[in-house]
Design brief:
By secondary structure, the chain is mostly beta strands. The chain has two domains: 7-45, no CATH class; 63-144, Immunoglobulin-like. The protein is built from no helices and eleven strands. It has strands at 7-12, 18-23, 30-33, 63-70, 73-79, 88-99, 102-110, 114-118, 128-135, 138-139, 143-144. Strand 6 (88-99) and strand 7 (102-110) form a beta hairpin.
């Protein structure tokens, strides 16, 4: 969007840092950072919009997913997915981890078949996560992480 463009806000992410909008000058909705637009009204009255990742079946999801805890560190590991160099975009983990006594959502990208999170054990709700293979056409079906 450019200066003076307008649109309708249909939803937001959980923190309100991204907005799901329908610009008036294009025929499809999109996400936009809340920091680059001026809104009227309280965005927190809007529903949390689901994120729809582009789906791909060219490669399979990761296999052999494990997670181990060592104090406040949780390491998630899996077997590498063989992809062509041109297609390979690594892996993405969507996780809800405990930090400061609350669950914090984060998405991380890695080219390696493991990732370590800071995850305290002080939250009333359980930490959790999903793992995806990422290639240039999209994302595989997610694999639930057996969070310790």
């Amino acid at each position: 969007m450019y200066t003076d463009d307008t649109g309708t806000v249909w939803g937001r992410n959980a923190s309100g840092s991204w907005l799901w909008i329908q610009p008036d000058n294009i025929h499809y909705p999109c996400w936009i950072s809340a920091s680059v637009v001026e809104t009227h009204g309280n965005i927190f009255t809007l529903r949390i919009a689901p994120v729809r990742l582009p789906h791909s079946t060219l490669y399979g999801p990761p296999e052999g997913v494990t997670a181990t805890r060592d104090g406040d560190s949780v390491t998630v590991s899996w077997q590498p997915v063989n992809m062509t160099e041109d297609d390979n975009r690594g892996y993405m983990i969507e996780a809800n981890v405990c930090q400061g006594g609350i669950l914090v959502w984060m998405a991380v990208a890695t080219m390696e078949p493991s990732y370590t999170f800071d995850d305290e054990t002080t939250c009333p709700d359980e930490s959790n996560g999903l793992l995806y293979t990422v290639e240039k056409h999209g994302y595989t079906d997610p694999v639930p992480i057996p969070w310790p």
